[in-house]
């Protein structure tokens, strides 16, 4: 409304301004209402919580990084291929160009990532698994590792199928680093406890994003990350993982469309297996055999891998190299690997000119290789892009495709294990996946050879589809090495092919049953070798875990503080033990009750006043009683991600239980009783807890052999 | 070896026997080795644990039951169809044959199941969800419900699409009953605690079997049952669910092959959507709109359903009917439903002659309905079995397929809600699934009408596939009604069609975001209406839940027993309160510490001796401190499935917290702060805890409105 006020020039001016403003904005009521509406929408959007935006940004960001990295790796790989072709027919030059390129790449990757931070080495999944159980690994998720890992990983992957490494594990690590960094930016207002809670939720989502943005598979991304990383899972974290993983997978495939690689959003390793008659019932038998073969090979692989990892650390020469000259070690190993895969040499027997992705595309091929007739050998030509040309790589004039596949499996077995000892950022899932696909393809081709006219059921002849066996093999081998079942779904999502899902699950279950009984998973094995803090699984059927009570294995010598104690006493306590937190008793009497705990923090050592005045004292949430069973204590540690819990009897502090105590028992029991009972009931044998006092150790050993 | 002993006739005979035995069994060494081998295999197989056998039997058994039930229902349905055709063209007879059959079936179902046990009514999922949180519902899983539920469910489903009910929920209940029964048979030797633990593991697996053996979908069966039933999940229970569900799904589809329904193992609602170009990028926008529509409709559905469920219980007439004459109520409701679906009447506008499975097959159809031209109306003919004949049911001479679809959606909305009030064994998932598919089909056909020539992207024209929208609609609507995301995978597994997975997940996420913000899920809603004990979810972002401590809301008046107390004192305590267990103090002083608990059991009331001598006293595992926050306490209750936990301060018993206290707070907070924040953060408003004392209630109300 207009309020003309009579007055001087100034007021008139003001009035003119008002008028002109009003002339620009008609319908004040409608505008006000609109503004109200917008306010409401804005408020609604923000009330939904920032989680949505956060997860969206995380998913999209990781997808873009994944895609850009793929693009860069492809370019680098093309450069290598070009170089190898341009060099001409001089064998020495060819050899040099074939070996030097991956050596330079891998050595640079090692040197660069090691020089910035040693945390960027490896896949990172064992460490993440440890972090998710509540252990704090300082700096492991710091953003400064990010650059080192991205650059290192790109170089590692650009070295190509010679080094035979993947990107899944490292990408999960990258994704969690980004999530923690983004989380730090927004959670400055939140309280500490809430923050910790939230961070865990976000870590779970970030892991799902990591898997999803590599394979473009949202559902199995979530499931795989849950299976591999966690022991317990809250259903309310579910949607976070799904939302972020969907954003990631969507963006990842969308970028492929924008880049004109694909016409529309489709599966990443799209396969065109026949779906009108995928498999005959009789073939389920062969799928079960495939599962058993994969399970046994996975056992052998895991055993050899752990053995080699330990051997490399113990051998004087390699240990010295790894301690001081990591790039030299890398260069030597890659030289060996590259020499073996040199195409005019042994490489021609193992299709070594294919990239990791091309390996998968050929192995998941719809055709039956045994029935195809290869062209004349054309090793000099570059491998062409069409499926026929790619398949030609598997053919060799003097060996059948059975020969090349078997040779590939034989050589890659130890080359793959050797590659896992390289101190550079890499993922170890993809090579296992490819290896499994090759196992499946070999068995599938054999079945197709046994039934050249197909399997007859109800009058009609149905040809065998070896591609289906390759799917099942990839899922079964990778699933049993990582102790996970969701690889069955991963294979379906990555190929967009669902009709083989039942035999694939069958093979995965059989393989898992065998491997989980005899070997810890790839990641648990690495945790054991790296001696990370870790809570072993307990066999739920074992009676002793119900009979042993906390009193029998708790640590009795707990350093406690009294509420009124001064600086001297606190200092003495800090000197006596290296605990991260101390129980605070109500009075100095030994029979007094702990009501709270003080954290070991620098600001706690002020020289004046008492403990109660100066230090951060938090109330204790839970206390155990001495009659709690080992099984219950283990369950609590696992569920609540505890580090240490105090034991009280009639309100008197009598001891404490930390992971070391629970672990000591678990390990002892496993040793006493031998084999397990199937999934989840094996105790993965941990390294002996050297810190436990002798008395306790003896008790544990007695417990280990119950009558 | 032969030991010839000189002696009488008898010894010679013996020798001869020995010789003849040996002549029958050559190569004693090889045999001994073989026998040793077999022993070893046997031992190995049994050492793997009986779990495998148990789960295998469970899966196979449920699949057989599911298949037999399907077969029987099909026969009964065929009989109804035949009757309806044979009756001729007399409208009255037609009407009677159309309405009487479902009325008889549904009334018998109600009467039979009610007369045996009232527990067999409904889907059973809300009760199972409550049981999984640790509440003991007596007799709910007793095997005597089994027969009643199987017979009742068969009759309900034989009433066909008139009543519009499904079998998923009931089948989950059946599966858990079988699992508990099988479990009882084998766990006689185990200890109680272990047994309880094991039973929970088996329940989770059984639920997965229930879903998997209905849809033949192993992976999504496991995921859906987790999402719907549990709040936390142990990864080690995973393989059990997968193994049992795979056995169930495999057997279920295998039986279909043996019965010559299918040529080989294939998806249950196999669809042949075009997979070379499933959808254009622009279409993701329409999929998001579809998700929003499904979410809004799901909100309306859930609200109306709860309202009607309460209204039917409160209305004098219906309440009286439901209390005394349940079959009469069923008969009246089914008469109304059948009259509306009568094909010559309104039924012709809603394709009422199709079965539930045929509804799904037509809605997931590959063709675009708007482009097809129907034959002349043939309402008199029975619907033929080919897709074209089935589709004809959706056509009406005076209404387009848009008209029939819209009418179907409008009428089925309230008919579906009305059907859920019927007191008979039934599942409520399938109708929601079909309804969602119809929403999707309608929107898909609309999009296809808007872009009759397809959507142009990069030069090429790509036609719209309305079947893909039907998939997304089914997943989004059923997912948002049940608050689950795994329906996206369920739809893919049930149709064997994976290429639409990304837009389907998108729609499901959008729909879930809307519904979870405004309404409790279908099962939670039923729990609220049925007043089952239940722990509401807590909003993880709400600050107050971190600030409120146990001291402020715990129950202070705890009836405790002293260890030396005699019969009189125990009797007095039992009279004073109705607690299920009592803390046992070390001495009679009030400041004494509780070390153990006595269970309220009949053998505890022996008239001589003290409590310590006669009663079952168990040690207390955990104690809370008064400074534990509400959030932490809630977390503990949820994780450990606690019913009640005692609070001690300096070793002195000061109170107890049970679900009622935690729930009271949760509800109060929700009322104070309004809307939630997305998945998992809403507090589903519970019924007010009338048992809480006034003082406590006031405290809760104060907490509900923090400054």
Structure description:
Chain A is mainly alpha-helical. Among the domains of chain A are: 9-47; 544-704, CBS-domain (Roll), CATH 3.10.580. Chain A is 60% helix and 6% strand. The first copy, chain A, contains 28 helices and ten strands. Chain A has a four-stranded mixed sheet with strand order 4-5-6-7. In chain A, helix 24 (567-576) links the parallel strand 4 and strand 5 (581-585). In chain A, helix 9 packs across helix 10 (238-258). Chain A is globular, with a radius of gyration of 31 Å. The N and C termini of chain A lie far apart (95 Å). The interface between A and B is large, with 106 and 107 residues. Strand 8 of chain A pairs antiparallel with strand 8 (622-624) of chain B, so a sheet runs across the interface.
């Amino acid at each position: 409304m207009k309020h003309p006020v009579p007055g001087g020039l100034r007021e008139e001016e003001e009035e003119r301004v008002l008028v002109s403003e009003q002339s620009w904005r008609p319908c004040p009521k409608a505008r006000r209402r609109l503004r109200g509406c917008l306010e409401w929408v804005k408020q609604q959007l923000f009330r939904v919580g920032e989680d949505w935006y956060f997860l969206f940004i995380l998913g999209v960001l990781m997808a873009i990084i994944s895609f850009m990295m793929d693009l860069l790796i492809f370019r680098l790989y093309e450069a290598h291929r070009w170089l190898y072709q341009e060099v001409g027919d001089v064998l020495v030059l060819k050899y040099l160009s074939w070996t030097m390129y991956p050596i330079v790449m891998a050595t640079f990757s090692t040197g660069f990532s090691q020089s910035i931070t040693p945390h960027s080495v490896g896949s990172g999944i064992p460490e993440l698994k440890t972090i998710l159980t509540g252990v704090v690994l300082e700096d492991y998720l710091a953003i400064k590792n990010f650059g080192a890992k991205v650059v290192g990983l790109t170089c590692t992957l650009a070295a190509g199928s010679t080094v035979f490494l993947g990107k899944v594990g490292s990408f999960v690590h990258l994704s969690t680093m980004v999530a923690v960094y983004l989380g730090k930016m927004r959670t400055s207002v939140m309280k500490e406890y809430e923050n910790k809670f939230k961070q865990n939720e976000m870590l779970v989502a970030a892991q799902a994003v990591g898997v999803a943005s590599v394979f473009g598979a949202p559902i199995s991304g979530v499931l795989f990350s849950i299976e591999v990383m966690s022991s317990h899972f809250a259903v309310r974290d579910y949607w976070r993982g799904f939302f972020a993983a969907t954003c990631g997978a969507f963006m990842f495939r969308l970028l492929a469309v924008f880049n004109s690689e694909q016409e529309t959003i489709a599966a990443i390793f799209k396969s065109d297996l026949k779906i009108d008659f995928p498999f005959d019932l009789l073939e389920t038998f062969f799928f079960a055999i495939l599962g058993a073969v994969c399970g046994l090979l996975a056992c052998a692989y895991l055993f050899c891998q752990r053995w080699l990892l330990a051997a490399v650390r113990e051998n004087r020469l390699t240990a010295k190299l790894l301690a001081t000259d990591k790039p030299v070690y890398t260069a030597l190993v890659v030289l060996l690997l590259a020499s073996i895969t040199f195409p005019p040499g042994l490489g021609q027997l193992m299709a070594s000119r294919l990239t990791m992705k091309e390996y998968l595309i050929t192995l998941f091929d719809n055709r039956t290789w045994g029935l195809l007739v290869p062209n004349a050998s054309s090793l000099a030509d570059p491998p062409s892009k069409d499926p026929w040309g790619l398949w030609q790589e598997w053919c060799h004039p003097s060996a059948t495709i059975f020969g090349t596949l078997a040779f590939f499996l034989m050589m890659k077995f130890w080359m793959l294990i050797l590659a896992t000892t390289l101190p550079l950022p890499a993922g170890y899932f993809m090579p296992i996946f490819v290896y499994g696909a090759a196992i499946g393809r070999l068995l599938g081709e054999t079945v197709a050879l046994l039934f050249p006219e197909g399997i007859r059921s109800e009058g009609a002849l149905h040809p065998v589809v070896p591609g289906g066996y390759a799917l099942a093999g990839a899922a079964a081998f990778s699933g049993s090495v990582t102790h996970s079942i969701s690889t069955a779904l991963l294979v379906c999502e990555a190929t967009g092919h669902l009709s083989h899902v039942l035999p694939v699950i069958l093979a995965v279950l059989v393989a898992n049953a065998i491997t989980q009984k005899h070997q810890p998973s790839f990641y648990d094995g690495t945790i054991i070798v790296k001696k990370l803090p870790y809570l072993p699984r307990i066999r739920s059927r074992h009676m002793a875990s119900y009979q042993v009570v906390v009193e029998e294995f708790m640590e009795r010598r707990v350093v406690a503080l009294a509420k009124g104690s001064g600086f001297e006493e606190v200092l003495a306590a800090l000197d006596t033990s290296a605990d991260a937190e101390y129980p605070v008793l109500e009075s100095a009497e030994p029979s007094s009750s702990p009501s709270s705990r003080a954290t070991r923090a620098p600001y706690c050592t002020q020289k004046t006043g008492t403990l109660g005045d100066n230090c951060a004292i938090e109330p204790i949430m839970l206390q155990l009683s001495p009659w709690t069973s080992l099984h219950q204590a283990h369950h609590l540690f696992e569920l609540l991600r505890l580090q240490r819990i105090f034991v009280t009897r009639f309100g008197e502090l009598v001891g404490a239980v930390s992971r070391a105590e629970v672990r000591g028992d678990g390990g002892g029991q496993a040793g006493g009783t031998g084999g397990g009972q199937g999934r989840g009931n094996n105790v993965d044998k941990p390294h002996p807890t050297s810190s436990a006092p002798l008395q306790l150790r003896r008790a544990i050993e007695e417990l280990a052999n119950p009558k």
